[in-house]
């Protein structure tokens, strides 16, 4: 957009997807490419923000100069990094796909088929909800933005899910992203609805992830 309207604003963006190991070579993960979060970080930096990108299992070679990158892998690592960074942040944008569960134990050695027989059971425990924690702990003037990836084909039901989610998480805005339709994970385009705390739609936008990123920043930070 060619304007420095976010000049000096401190923004923390999480992107990618967390991985939860259960032995030294295996993990449970998700299909988040990190593209939308990266686009938000890049767009904010172009507009003058001081951006920290917390990158969960994504290539960060293409991250523009001037963006501080913190690499993490597990949900607990992401939690620690984002909580530390959030203390100084005006805005936290939780675009990462965070695993809801992690294995209850991580084996020291690789699990062997010879040892398990024809069935393997891995027990999971629930991870902290980082977005809910950040929202509960947010300081005066701080804006917390969550993302939701849903596979709901019915727009009215999708909206209900989004409204319930923003109420549950307590964040200021929720970017609802339908990964079940034509766009979503690992694509260059996206299709989102932005909700405010009251559950009102403040913006609906489709397009490239970079253009969607700019519009998300407009809707949540400049009120446009
Ligand atoms: O509940 P759901 O996973 O759909 O919520 C998505 C939003 O919550 C995203 O912003 C994601 O980064 C965040 N989240 C989180 N901690 C979790 C799970 C999701 O911060 N354990």
From TrEMBL:
Task: Name the catalysed reactions.
Answer: N-[(R)-4-phosphopantothenoyl]-L-cysteine + H(+) = (R)-4'-phosphopantetheine + CO2; (R)-4'-phosphopantothenate + L-cysteine + CTP = N-[(R)-4-phosphopantothenoyl]-L-cysteine + CMP + diphosphate + H(+)
Q: How is the cofactor bound?
A: Binds 1 FMN per subunit.
The entry's protein name is Coenzyme A biosynthesis bifunctional protein CoaBC
Q: Where is the DNA/pantothenate metabolism flavoprotein C-terminal domain?
A: 6-219
Q: Which residue stretches, if any, does this entry annotate as coiled coil? A: none
- The species is Gryllotalpicola reticulitermitis
Q: Which residues bind CTP?
A: 100, 110, 128-131, 147, 165, 169
* Function of the protein: Catalyzes two sequential steps in the biosynthesis of coenzyme A. In the first step cysteine is conjugated to 4'-phosphopantothenate to form 4-phosphopantothenoylcysteine. In the second step the latter compound is decarboxylated to form 4'-phosphopantotheine.
Q: Hey, which pathway is this one from?
A: Cofactor biosynthesis; coenzyme A biosynthesis; CoA from (R)-pantothenate: step 3/5; Cofactor biosynthesis; coenzyme A biosynthesis; CoA from (R)-pantothenate: step 2/5
Requisite cofactors: FMN; Mg(2+)
Q: Which gene encodes it?
A: coaBC
Q: Which family does it belong to?
A: In the C-terminal section; belongs to the PPC synthetase family.
Q: Where is the segment annotated Phosphopantothenate--cysteine ligase? A: 11-224
Q: Which UniProt keywords apply?
A: Decarboxylase, Flavoprotein, FMN, Ligase, Lyase, Magnesium, Metal-binding, Multifunctional enzyme
Q: Return the EC number.
A: 4.1.1.36, 6.3.2.5
């Amino acid at each position: 957009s060619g304007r420095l309207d976010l000049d000096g604003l401190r923004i923390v963006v999480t992107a990618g997807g967390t991985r939860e190991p259960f032995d030294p070579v295996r993990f449970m993960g998700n299909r988040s490419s990190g593209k939308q979060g990266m686009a938000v970080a890049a767009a904010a930096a172009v507009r003058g923000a001081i951006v920290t990108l917390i990158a969960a299992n994504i290539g960060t070679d293409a991250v523009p100069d001037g963006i501080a990158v913190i690499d993490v892998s597990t949900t607990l690592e992401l939690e620690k990094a984002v909580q530390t960074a959030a203390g100084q942040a005006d805005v936290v944008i939780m675009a990462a796909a965070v695993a809801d569960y992690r294995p209850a134990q991580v084996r020291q050695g690789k699990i062997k088929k010879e040892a398990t027989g024809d069935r393997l059971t891995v027990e999971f425990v629930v991870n902290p909800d980082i977005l809910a924690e950040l929202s509960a702990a947010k300081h005066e003037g701080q804006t917390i933005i969550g993302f939701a990836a849903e596979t709901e084909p019915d727009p009215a039901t999708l909206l209900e899910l989004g409204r319930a989610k923003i109420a549950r998480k307590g964040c200021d805005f929720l970017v609802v992203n339908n990964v079940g339709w034509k766009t979503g994970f690992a694509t260059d385009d996206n299709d989102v609805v932005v909700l405010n705390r009251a559950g009102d739609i403040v913006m609906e936008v489709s397009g490239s992830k970079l253009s969607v990123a700019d519009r998300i920043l407009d809707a949540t930070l400049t009120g446009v």
